[in-house]
Design brief:
With 430 residues, the protein is an alpha+beta fold. It has helices spanning 9-19, 50-56, 87-93, 99-106, 117-125, 148-159, 169-177, 181-201, 211-223, 287-305, 313-330, 336-340, 421-428; strands at residues 26-31, 37-39, 42-43, 64-67, 78-82, 110-113, 130-133, 164-167, 235-238, 259-264, 267-268, 271-272, 275-280, 380-383, 386-389, 394-397, 400-403, 411-412.
């Protein structure tokens, strides 16, 4: 791994939070993600299941975590199963975890090879009454492929039809939403790396460069700072492309007079950052660009103040919409009549700001967390308003990642990333 070792106390705490909510005589099983082929003998880079990482820190393919707090044998209350390493595997693919290394990473004392799973699992299921399945119930979930977890669930239901079934996801939604101090520190590192990338590109951007050249500069800075790379597919859109919310081609020329939208974030130790900044390609904002940019910035600043314990996401979004409507009126993009006659289900401001303002952050860029329940201290949210004006060939979005505090304003993990017009212009013209 590129990242520095993580104290296994984080995973010990996370498992304790999960098992505290399990029913008596129940087992929970978590499978690693698949390694996906691309054709012939090639595979995509492996990326671990965030749930398995959250509970064990085991960043390796073909791993299984089993939790059984009521197991008769105390050694079987936490078990990590791994592919057995060998000298041959080490020569061809690099060394995998030894049992000792896996125990140090996870804080789990009992490590078995994967070949032993079926026998041990059957034995433990004779003691258990309930099994927790780890289904994907994220509110953005749209996975169509059958995962390693899906195949396990299907087999388990066939092999143990007399057992009761429960869902791990409801527990994970609750506990993953609130971050431990160690997690916030890792996310701060990811944000700091993103800051370095942004400062690198500011003097680099000029009329005539290609969007993918900017992407390459970010990637260079991320890798040299122990990041695996982008936390998500980056959006680097100039001119009209900035009005395409999920523009990822990044293949156009950046032209004089255009704005360049950069929705980019580094990952670190599998934790995400998520930044958006919008800068003038030629290094100077026009008066109109500055007016729109500062309007978005004011919305972001006001929205940030609302992220406090007890806030409901749906109500928060409505209040942000009111602030945005006021700014759009000031920019001449909406009239008072537009606002007075708006459809409550699709307010007038949605013509220029059609997406949500905030989402949970963590191991996943769109992390687990309850959007229907009041916000809690320790949750990490993005704040990302935008104004998109296709007729003016301009889209502007600004985004920071913030931690909700018990009292007072949230803590901005991106507080050191340039955001004011004057600072951006200065750094672009050194």
């Amino acid at each position: 791994m590129k990242y520095h070792p993580i104290n296994n106390q984080l995973y010990i705490k996370n498992r304790a939070k999960f098992t505290a909510q399990m029913k008596s005589k129940s087992i929970a099983v978590f499978n690693s993600n698949d390694t996906f082929t691309t054709g012939a003998d090639s595979t995509l880079p492996f990326e671990q299941s965030s749930d398995l990482l959250y509970l064990s820190g085991a960043d390796q393919e073909e791993s299984i975590l089993l939790l059984f707090p009521d197991a008769i044998n105390p050694n079987h209350r936490e078990i990590l199963f791994l592919t057995e390493t060998s000298d041959l595997i080490a020569i061809w693919y690099g060394a995998k975890y030894s049992k000792e290394e896996a125990a140090n990473v996870s804080g789990i004392k009992t490590i078995y090879w994967l070949s032993e799973f079926e026998k041990i699992f059957f034995d433990l299921m004779t003691e258990a009454e309930t099994i927790y399945f780890n289904t994907n119930e994220h509110y953005r979930q749209a996975v169509e492929i059958e995962t390693r977890e899906d195949r396990f669930i299907k087999k388990c239901k066939a092999d143990f039809p007399a057992h009761k079934w429960e869902k791990s996801n409801q527990i994970l939604q609750n506990i993953r939403g609130v971050k431990e101090p160690e997690e916030i520190e890792l996310m701060q590192t990811a944000c700091d790396i993103t800051n370095k990338g942004f400062r690198r590109i500011l003097p680099f951007v000029k009329p005539g460069i290609m969007e993918f050249e900017v992407e390459a500069e970010f990637m260079h800075e991320f890798l040299r700072n122990r990041s695996r790379g982008f936390a998500y597919t980056p959006i680097i859109g100039s001119g009209y492309s900035a009005c395409v919310l999920h523009y990822i081609e990044n293949n156009k020329e950046c032209k004089d007079g255009d704005m360049l939208l950069l929705d980019v974030g580094a990952e670190y130790a599998n934790y995400s950052s998520d930044m958006t900044r919008t800068i003038p390609v030629n290094g100077r904002f026009t008066d109109r660009q500055k007016a729109v940019y500062n309007a978005v910035l004011r919305v972001k600043n006001e929205a940030t103040k609302m992220l406090v314990p007890g806030t409901l996401w749906a109500e928060y979004q409505k209040e942000v919409g009111k602030i945005m409507s006021s700014e759009l009126l000031g920019l001449g993009l909406l009239s008072k009549v537009d606002v007075q006659n708006e459809d409550p289900n699709w307010p007038a401001y949605k013509k220029y700001f059609m997406h949500g303002t905030s989402h949970h952050m963590g191991l996943d860029t769109h992390d687990y967390g309850q959007l229907k329940l009041p916000m809690k201290a320790g949750m990490v949210f993005t704040v990302e308003p935008g104004i998109y004006i296709p007729k003016e060939n301009m889209g502007i979005r600004i985004e920071d990642d913030v931690v909700i505090n018990q009292t007072g304003l949230p803590f901005n993990l991106m507080r050191d990333i340039p955001i004011e017009v004057e600072e951006i212009e200065t750094l672009m013209n050194v």
